[in-house]
What does this fold into?
Amino acid sequence: MAKGAVISMLLVLFMALAAVSEAQVHYGPRRFARGHRRPADPDAPTHLRFYFHDTVSGKSPSAVRLAGPVDPSSRTFFGMVNVMDDPLTEGPEAGSAAVGRAQGLYMATDQAQLGFLQAMNLVLTSGPYNGSSLAVLGRNCPLSDVREMPVVGGTGAFRFARGYAQARTHWLDFSTGDATVEYDVYVMH
It folds into this structure.
């Protein structure tokens, strides 16, 4: 009799586990947020290009320092933390059409060279992906010609996004720290 009760309980447990597993599986086409288009070729990455304007000087900066470097005379700025809400535009000119905002932070985490840990959301505010965002988290060495950072997620049309962003400095003012950076973002979604 005890064997029968154990077998019955195991059978009920296995059926419950199977029901839970089945409930978590979704079959069918990918779903996109209302108003967002499905890529023409779902196996090809979406390529986005825009310009990031990081202004740390003047009366109205788009990035502000929260913590200074451990050693103010250091060339690496190790320990510095900046928070940003930088405009993203179609072209390199500051007056170019706005496409979104880069919101997040960058902190100097390398004691040997200028190297940042950059964590940001690329929030798109116009075009076919208006209302969607991409999350980027990675190493950014601003004095390198090309930097690559991973895209680790997204929202809206970019739910479950994965990919990478390549950054190239378009313009940098060494006296102020202001910069314009070209971003090429390749993302699967």
